[in-house]
Amino acid sequence: MNDELTTPLWLLSPLAVLGAGLMLALVAGMLLQRLRIPKLYGAVLAGLLLGATGAELIDRALLAQFQELLNAAAALVLFEVGRKMDLAWLLRSGRQGGSLLLATFARLVAVALTIRLLGLPWGAAIFIASILIAVNPVIVNSMVADENASGTSTFATANMVGLSSLVALLVLALTMAWTRSQGLDAGTSFGEELMRQGGKLVLGAGIALLSYGLYAAATRLCKVPATLRPGMLLAALLIDLGLCSISSSSALLSLLLMGLLLRNVERRDNVFQAQLKTAQDIGYVLLFLMSAALVDLQGLAQGWTLLGALAVFAVRIGATRLALWPGSAWDRNKKHAMALSMCSLVSYGGLVVDTTLNAYTGLDQASTELMGALLALNVLLAPGLTWLGLRMAGETYRPLGESRKDGVHP
Prior knowledge:
Elements: H1 2-6, H2 14-34, H3 40-50, H4 60-64, H5 67-83, H6 87-92, H7 95-117, H8 122-131, H9 137-147, H10 152-181, H11 190-221, H12 229-247, H13 251-264, H14 272-293, H15 297-300, H16 305-323, H17 332-341, H18 348-352, H19 365-392
Helix pairs in contact: 2-3, 3-14, 5-12, 5-13, 5-14, 7-8, 7-10, 7-16, 8-10, 9-10, 9-14, 9-19, 10-11, 10-17, 11-12, 11-13, 12-13, 16-17, 16-19, 17-19
């Protein structure tokens, strides 16, 4: 009886704990924004206070209970990534699109060489480098929305988020096939494992086509008004995510393709940004709160991992800046700004939108510690550097008030 009286009742409810974390993140974010600090740091603060670094109220076990909710938040974010990719521009932009593609491979090579020089095996170096090709959509989209950023470099960065994710998926399929086929307990050859990984991508693409087809057919046959189409779209996204979850197909590719189809195939008026903006903003905070809650600052300060992670982080930014050199549409200052805006990185689980919060366990202990340190630095540094990059480019318009309706054109 005494234990029941002394234990706060809200601590017994995982939903209440997550709700309290979200409330703290939103309140702290608004207060920080008044000080001209990116409000995404409110999620960082809440995650550190309630997660592994602080009270340990939010941990992997608790977050696992809300995996479907987190997947739904990720679906909105990834759909927005695809919706901001302009395929026509990427194909006709010449040096600009080419430099963005070059940057993805430059990061792969530079990060792999750096990790190898740190003494880690080639397999781990290439695997981690494959993940670090991608730019984190939560950080970029959140910073762009908060600062009402719009311009040539912001437009290119938005396309880079989607392009880097697609390239990372393809490269990761190769590295995953190689890693799993070379393991001590491997029961399949490289070719068989490659077919398996490729099959996930193909199945994810098929699910995207099916889900978009359902959305298009339902809205056209029923002549759904524009104001109601966001609800129909949300239903299609949930169908897409659910089918990917039960089939173990590539949810990231599928959701990106849903956004691509809406942006590049749909010819009707686009009313989705305003309708889904609030849900997307909450999704940004919720996903970043999760990332921050899993960060252990005490572990980050131990051993060589912090210095190694800082080196990889810096090399990745430098490789991006070097690859942007051929682009003729941006001046030197904008290229510096873009390199900073593209500094953020994703985790393995975030890249594949896995059905479990557990990280990939095929890495050795030293490689796992390095990846953990990189993700911790990403939570602490990347929002601020991304914000700084947008400000350096001179493309932020926060004083003007609300963001534009679409915000995807330069």
